[in-house]
């Protein structure tokens, strides 16, 4: 019988998730994000989609100065931190179990004069949405948040609640499974959606979405 030893980081692309920290340089700042895959799982590691979304923001495709923004499923908060460093006011959100780790990463990586520009809040998609102003955001950000089919409906409900007609939604996604494209189909029923960027090396797509304006001819 062949003996196959258990090697935890057998897939090289996943081994970096097991490092206790990840380092980046965005918006002229060194950023060190603590990771804890073993204890907190998906919410406590930096996913490629977050890195690509930060690169996209840094390239200046979106004007972030003073923009009222919210990040959904922020995990370690890298995207929210970079958005704040680039001048946005950001509410950085995730499920309750992820908040303590998230807050520590955000605080560690932002100069104290930016702490007032950032809030870390619980937001489980579809729940307690009245705690967030309806249509109150210029920009909604999400990196690698399209992966659980059960969450597709509440995630779209959440986008509907947060977005005004002019709100820009940026979703950085790795399309892993057929069901992920189902999310895009569902989103297109209520939002206009276009792909604005593709990182070939990391296989990450960035989609820009906005509420469909009511058709004047109907
Ligand atoms: C794959 S991780 C991505 C984390 C981070 N955005 C990144 O790219 O590094 C998915 C994130 O979505 C969050 N999430 C999953 N289901 C959620 C839900 N129902 N409501 C809010 N956040 C959720 C997880 O806690 C996790 O932080």
What does this structure look like?
This is Protein N-lysine methyltransferase METTL21A. It is found in: Cytoplasm. The protein contains 7 helices and 9 strands; from the N terminus they run H-E-E-H-H-E-H-E-H-E-E-H-E-H-E-E. It is of the alpha/beta class. The longest helix is centred in the N-terminal third of the chain and has 11 residues, at 48-58. It binds S-adenosylmethionine. The site of S-adenosylmethionine has 21 residues, from helix 3.
Brief description of this entry?
The protein has 218 residues and is α/β, with parallel strands linked by helices. 28% of the residues lie in helices and 29% in strands. The strands form two sheets. A seven-stranded mixed β-sheet has the order 5-4-3-6-7-9-8, sandwiched between helices. A two-stranded antiparallel sheet has the order 1-2.
Q: Bin the strand percentage.
A: 25-35%
- The SS-based structural class is alpha/beta
Q: Under the CATH scheme, which architecture would be assigned?
A: 3-Layer(aba) Sandwich
CATH top level? Answer: Alpha Beta
Predict the CATH topology. Rossmann fold
Distance between termini? 69 Å
Computed over alpha carbons, the radius of gyration is 17 Å
What level of helicity do the residues show?
25-40%
| Shape field | globular
CATH superfamily: Vaccinia Virus protein VP39
> If helices are DSSP runs of H or I spanning 4 or more residues, what is the number of helices?
7
Strands, helices and their partners?
Elements: H1 12-15, E1 21-26, E2 29-34, H2 37-40, H3 48-58, E3 68-72, H4 78-85, E4 89-94, H5 99-109, E5 118-122, E6 137-143, H6 152-162, E7 163-173, H7 178-188, E8 191-199, E9 204-211
Parallel strand pairs: 3-4, 3-6, 4-5, 6-7
Antiparallel strand pairs: 1-2, 7-9, 8-9
